[in-house]
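Consider the following assembly input.
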Amino acid sequence: MTVRGSAVPSAGRPPAPGPRDLRLIVRDEPLSLAEHTACYGPLPSGPPDLLIAEVERSGLTGRGGGAFPAGRKMRAVAGARGPARTGRVVIANGSESEPASSKDGVLLSRAPHLVLDGIALCASAVGADRAYLCVGHAAGTSDRALARAVAERAGAGLDSVPVEIHPTAGGYLAGQESALISALNGNAPVPTFVPPRPAERGAHRRPTLVLNVETLAHIALIARFGSEWFAAAGTPGTPGSALVTVTGAVQRPGVREIPLGTPLGELLHRCGLIKPAQAVLTGGYFGTWLPLPAALTVPVSHEGMRAAGASLGPGVLAVLPAAACGLAETARVASFLAAQNAGQCGPCRNGLPALAEALNWIAFGQAGPDIIGWVEQLAGLVAGRGACHLPDGAAGLVRSALTVFAADVQAHLSAGPCARASGPPVLPVPARWAQ
Amino acid sequence: MTGTGHLGAIIVTSSTPLWYATRATGLVAMVLLTASMALGLLSSVRFQRPAWPRFVTLGLHRNLSLLALGFTVVHVLTTVLDSFVSIPIQDAFVPFISSYRPIWVGLGAIALDLMLALIITSLLRTRMGLQSWRVVHWTAYLCWPVAVLHGLGTGTDTPVRWVLVLTACCVLVVAVLTFWRLALAWPARPLASTAGVVLILATLIAGGAWLRVGPLSPGWSARSGTRTAPPAGASRPDHRASR
Amino acid sequence: MSQHPDGGSSRQPPLRRPQLRVNPIACDAHGLCIELLPELITADPWGYPIITPGPVPLRLQPLARRAVAACPTLALMLTSPPR
């Protein structure tokens, strides 16, 4: 599919909207620079303010899980104290430390030039002279495609700011915004206390713009086709399209691009939902469980998920089959999260292992009824009391499991672990990351 | 030299009251500095009891440090004003330039400088980085023994029994608490803690040996550099003669 | 004495009052803040401070400043009111 899109003209006239089915990923193999240019058009140029305004108008929110308005971030970094529009740093976060997510790796391996376009556009918009692309462990194949893409662009003299590819350390927290900056500053890859915010002082003590690689790819398209084109898909609360990773009890798991607001049922149907399924984990290991089939009507968008008591996060949707035990899965994830704590904050360092242990008792052991109160107390004690959101996410996950799998909880407490609890795990928990 | 009219003149110009004040304030300052050191060590080992919360340790440590500085300042002033021996004010701050017992008065200058650094940085603690404050505060481990050595070397009361006992008590308290601190500092490295304890014990033994051949043996006054001969007519009780 | 609900002067509106905040990375559970300001700070099961959210009442602000100065790791902070 080739489309001639017009570059964002510096005169400010909006381009004629192109067909909105233009995708982030057009085929399974990576696009070369020539193919990329033929498909999307050349890298647009224009005054920095124009791009920032366009991104703000589009309503694009971060696709890494934080959902912070991208335009506002760009404006904050561009306008930070210090010499105007010089010496900023752009970090493209492709770390994908969330084990159940694979969209960033897929995007980087199929459409590296969209991401690199986004980096170049943001670098010129905020006035950066350094740019990093942080790549996670699971990006094995994308390393080669990335290196090729960077070399192609260097040959064509496209990027005024060279992009340094930086491998993100292993660990669930290594891809967190402040942890990434800490690693680039030569310190341990663990979250730091905020303030100062990255927009004020981040990598090398300079104002730093950290955006997910998918967000940058969207910016590359917004720069070409405009904010109205972008917002033609999606919902008013969450405009545009997004990549989602669907795993678990589906026939065709993997990464898909959907217009936001698509009902969950439609998406799972397209992936070949294997029935009966009892629940779906939304938003990744930081997220929350939703019961099935009740959640099939929930729209996949920020406001839609929020209304259902869940969160979209980085677009991870893991379907739990009826043959698995939700408590056992959650207990395994909770143990993983507890082991991933950075050891910096007392409430998390003490509370998360206790929380995971209590949940393991419910899932796999013999526990009395007062354990529910203890779990509730622990969840309340850890939430919001760390330097990052790991304890909040773990507490939210555990609380939602106790709600959605309440019947299982009662069964486990009265009769011990169910037979399904000893079945094979559904949710991936990397063993090599356990600390 | 009788009569109230001359009383003021006696107190100001006669060296004996000032000399007593110097010795007294010096000893009190040593005790206060020892107490401050002890409370600092108790704070670092997180000592607390139901009737002794941590803020008491912290508050006492702060107040006794300030009091110790106060007594030290008086100690310095009485020394400078004392006309018996010429010790100008700069000798109290710049080490080893004194003509009277240069090494031992110099140690006092070092201790005073360190005390000022410790107290000023602590008053400004919330305005300076924590790591900088911490590094300066470690010099307390230098300040206290230097102050004690200064007292032993300069002080003319060193051979007096109760002064020796008092000093020994101070040293014992700080040594024991330092051992406690070392034991807790490196729980994963018992070798390092043991090495620290051995080092301190060696220092104590060496200190005791020095005492024996130094201040406690005859002729120390001359060996330590008491070059000023007493003016004719004035006299100071000679402790060694009275024992 | 004014009858303001928080027991303090009504001269300082709630939005202009400072808030207590702890840096959880720097905090090492020394517990001095819990001793000095039990009205606003309590201990969790592991000795770490749980701070009552919200602005610090006027009558407690001197105590809060004392607690901030007493923290051995300077983890407790009194954030200035937002402009």
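Chains B and A do not touch (no CB pair under 8 Å). Ask yourself how this observation constrains the way the partners meet.
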